[in-house]
Write a structure and sequence with these properties.
Layout lengths: L3 E5 L5 H12 L3 E4 L19 H7 L19 E7 L7 H8 L7 E7 L8 H6 L7 E8 L5 H10 L3
Parallel strand pairs: 1-2, 1-3, 3-4, 4-5
Length: 160
């Protein structure tokens, strides 16, 4: 049996809820990817061209600092990484997280929350942030409105 970690970034709490249920049902440890400077409601206003999230997402090289680097990724075989979809991809803080650890030889299973967008080019955008020996799997885009039973069934369906 592989050792599993569910790491997640959640700006509004939706991804956190999904991650907590996934960690429970997959018998995985849980780790929150926290930005060094937390996002405010104004930062997340995607309609404002001057908001922090808009500025970060327009610059694919931007890497928001994370608050800590204590995830101990080396102790896990499989790492689930969850995040909200921003502009059809993962927020750039996910690149920061991936670039902060050695994921060589590990399986990374991505899951996302979104009201309407799919993964887009997320997998391609994230591959450059990990070793060539890292296996990145796109899993599922969730609305965050699933019941615990639905999330439990989804987690059980994952073959890792």
């Amino acid at each position: 049996m592989s050792k599993k970690l569910v790491a997640y970034f959640s700006a509004s709490g939706v991804t956190r809820n999904v991650a907590e249920i996934l960690a429970e049902t997959a018998k995985a440890d849980l780790y929150e990817i926290k930005p060094e400077i937390p996002y405010t409601v104004a930062d997340l206003d995607w309609q404002n061209k001057q908001s922090r999230s808009t500025i970060e997402m327009e610059d694919k090289a931007f890497r928001p600092a994370i608050a800590d680097k204590n995830a101990n990724v080396g102790a896990y075989d499989t790492v689930f990484i969850g995040f909200p979809i921003w502009w059809y991809v993962a927020p750039t803080i996910i690149n920061t997280f991936l670039e902060s650890y050695d994921f060589a030889g590990k399986t990374v299973v991505l899951f996302a929350t979104s009201g309407s967008s799919g993964f887009g080019k997320t997998v391609d955008d994230l591959k450059g942030s990990v070793s060539a020996t890292t296996i990145i799997k796109e899993s599922k885009t969730l609305s965050g409105k699933q019941t615990k039973a639905e999330l439990t069934a989804w987690a059980a369906s994952l073959v890792i």
